[in-house]
Write a structure and sequence with these properties.
Structural class: alpha+beta
Shape: globular
CATH superfamily: Glutaredoxin
Order of helices and strands: HEEEEEHHEHEHEEEHEH
Largest sheet: 7 strands, mixed
Number of helices: 7
Strand order of the largest sheet: 4-3-7-6-5-9-10
Length: about 230
């Protein structure tokens, strides 16, 4: 518990928010982020971007593999962040519950090993095996997928309805207490209802999600590695 508290001291605390779209966001410098990173985050109603990422099952996964799911939950998590690790059991329980009802969970690690060694692919395999993840765990080494979705922290959750339009983004819950944002969103989607609270986003103002910053490469780092600089 003390480890989680100490991590939260360096992370941003969640606040209850209204369903307001957040397109342009800034991941602040610090804690492994070399400078403020400006990204475009999916807005409510946006379609899920496609991806092709390698998973701990040694297979490539793409968005189309989950066309039959009634709801799609894209989780941005990682190995090293204490907040993300603290939420693993919660996410496992939610996946076991809602995947039986037709939802599909997909976890993506957006932190490449050259930024955080503990988030490397071998460590992902070991972690998924140890915890028995009931969902794919994919490696976004280029951060191209992360930049398409726009997560700011780990964990950061994006929920899509049967038409693959975004209906919720933000935190899993309120520090393991109500409101249970992810669970509530899934219940609404699976019942064919509107999600009541659609946004809980990271930021230094009124809209916040807690966790460790995604370790985004700077534009200069991306250019040096031959990766696209813009979203």
């Amino acid at each position: 518990m003390m480890k989680l508290v100490s991590c939260l001291a360096a992370c941003v605390v969640l606040s209850l928010v209204n369903p307001v779209a957040a397109d342009e966001v800034v991941v602040p410098a610090g804690h492994g982020v070399l400078e403020d990173i400006h990204i475009t985050q999916l807005a409510i109603g946006d379609e899920a971007p496609d991806f092709e990422l390698f998973g701990v099952d040694y297979r490539y996964h793409s968005l189309g593999m989950y066309d039959e799911a009634r709801a799609l939950v894209v989780l941005f998590i990682c190995n090293h962040c204490r907040v993300s690790v603290d939420y693993e059991d919660t996410l496992i329980a939610l996946a076991n519950k809602y995947q039986e009802q037709g939802a599909q969970f997909v976890a993506i690690n957006p932190n490449p090993a050259y930024k955080v060694a503990a988030d490397g692919f071998p460590q992902m395999v070991a972690r998924a095996t140890e915890k028995g993840f009931p969902f794919p765990y994919l490696y976004d080494e280029t951060q191209n997928t992360a930049r398409a979705y726009g997560p700011e922290r780990t964990p950061h959750v994006f929920v899509f309805g049967p038409d693959r339009k975004l209906v919720y983004k933000g935190s899993v819950d309120n520090h393991h207490e109500a409101p249970f944002y992810l669970s509530d969103a899934l219940q609404a989607v699976l019942a064919g209802e509107e999600v009541e609270i659609a946004v809980a986003r990271e930021g230094m103002g009124d809209y916040q999600v807690f966790g460790c910053t995604v370790k985004y490469l700077t534009p200069a780092e991306r250019a040096e590695m031959g990766l696209p600089v813009s979203n």
